[in-house]
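dumping this here so i dont lose it
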């Protein structure tokens, strides 16, 4: 386990439970204890394995100015001793039983997860309950862990030009939203962070009525309910702080930032403020944005890959990113680097990408192109659902965004219901200069080009 890289949500990994494909959706159940702990159980019996994800609804978007990085730093410190484990012992227990564990923090929530043989579910539940209410959070371990977090930030952000570019982009793209706060925290905040702040953060947010326990695998509902009640029913419901959605979809005008680095390949990121399933007035807009993501950037036949990279050789490695699951408004991001064999100014890359967006706004995609985009999205989701961790993390993403666990149950029919004209309309509504934030990564001397 390496929690020192866990502030990025892509580090979950997929544990494929067998070669057998998931033909039918697992049977899913939900119940809530009297203290407010929400429990989701998904029965998948293809292998004698179970994964448990303890979802805590607190992330960087909940943090106050001057306390950035609290959720992520606390995630680290929780494994450094508790009522039942010595520092570092948590992972050793899981490993001895043939399992794996990790944790991650993002803008909206924190997840602590373990995968074990299903006969060892009780161990995962006991340890998860210990995380929720039994952490020591000692001063000596805080000193050790906060230095690890500062080192992580230096290595993964401060010394990484691409990561600094992304951090600066988030800061200008969300002038009114708490999503501008970096998950790992600003270094100035990490340098003055005190253990009593993390202790207060733990007492405030780690409560049964602010948590969801997600259990996926070879389990039976009645047995799970008994064991969950055994380990979690004794905790007391708490009064939680009032929270507001991180809204930033409204057009605020064009914004731009430049990060200079003489040794990096020049890079461009264009980010448009857009809604998510949690914030959109119409879910059709979100369906359409997801299809635009695939149409522009997924697969070799996607427009940016086929037209700008292969046919025109104008740019290198174009990427499109849109995450529809978040509790606040988000960004539709398009990035690319220059083609060093035929280098062009970043402004030329930006103009070429704009031209591709204007083409969609002028002419709806064909039915065949839209069908390809839809098939790619559904195939991606199907592959992710073929693992226990994939299923559990999908549920965590939905619940952590304030959405029901059933949000994507009808995904295929929802995507099939989107027309080419609706995709065109979404492009016209959201791909505008007023919604755009641009970030350049380039050498200092390129500033005058």
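and the seq i came up w/
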């Amino acid at each position: 386990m390496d929690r020192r890289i866990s502030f990025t949500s892509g580090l979950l990994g997929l544990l494929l439970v067998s070669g057998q494909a998931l033909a039918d959706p697992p049977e899913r159940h939900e119940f809530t204890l009297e203290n407010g702990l929400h429990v989701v159980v998904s029965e998948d019996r293809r292998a004698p394995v179970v994964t448990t994800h303890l979802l805590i609804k607190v992330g960087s978007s909940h943090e106050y100015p001057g306390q950035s990085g609290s959720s992520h730093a606390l995630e680290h410190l929780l494994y450094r001793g508790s009522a039942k484990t010595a520092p570092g012992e948590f992972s050793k227990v899981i490993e001895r039983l043939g399992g794996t564990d990790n944790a991650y923090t993002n803008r909206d929530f924190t997840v602590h997860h373990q995968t074990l043989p299903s006969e060892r579910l009780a161990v995962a539940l006991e340890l998860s309950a210990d995380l929720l209410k039994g952490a020591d959070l000692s001063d000596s371990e805080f000193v050790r862990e906060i230095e690890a977090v500062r080192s992580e930030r230096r290595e993964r952000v401060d010394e990484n030009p691409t990561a600094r570019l992304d951090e600066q982009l988030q800061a200008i793209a969300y002038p009114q939203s708490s999503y501008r706060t970096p998950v790992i925290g600003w270094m100035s905040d990490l340098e003055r962070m005190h253990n009593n702040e993390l202790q207060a953060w733990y007492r405030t947010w780690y409560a049964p009525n602010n948590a969801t326990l997600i259990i996926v695998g070879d389990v039976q509902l009645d047995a799970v309910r008994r064991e969950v009640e055994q380990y979690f029913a004794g905790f007391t419901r708490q009064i939680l702080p009032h929270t507001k959605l991180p809204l930033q979809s409204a057009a605020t005008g064009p914004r731009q930032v430049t990060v200079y680095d003489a040794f990096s390949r020049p890079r461009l990121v264009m980010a448009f403020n857009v809604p998510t399933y949690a914030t959109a007035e119409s879910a059709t807009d979100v369906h359409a944005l997801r299809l635009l993501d695939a149409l522009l950037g997924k697969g070799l036949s996607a427009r940016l890959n086929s037209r700008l990279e292969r046919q025109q050789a104008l740019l290198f490695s174009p990427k499109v990113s849109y995450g529809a699951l978040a509790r606040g408004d988000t960004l539709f991001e398009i990035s690319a680097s220059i083609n060093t064999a035929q280098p062009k100014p970043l402004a030329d890359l930006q103009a070429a990408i704009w031209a591709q967006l204007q083409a969609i706004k002028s002419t709806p995609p064909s039915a065949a192109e839209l069908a390809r985009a839809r098939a790619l999205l559904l195939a991606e989701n199907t592959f992710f659902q073929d693992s226990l961790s994939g299923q559990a993390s999908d549920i965590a993403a939905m619940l952590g965004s304030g959405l029901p666990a059933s949000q994507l149950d009808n995904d295929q029919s929802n995507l099939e219901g989107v027309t080419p004209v609706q995709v065109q309309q979404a492009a016209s509504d959201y791909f505008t200069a007023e919604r755009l934030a641009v970030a350049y990564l380039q050498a200092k001397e390129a500033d005058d080009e």
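The first strand starts at residue 27 and ends at 32.
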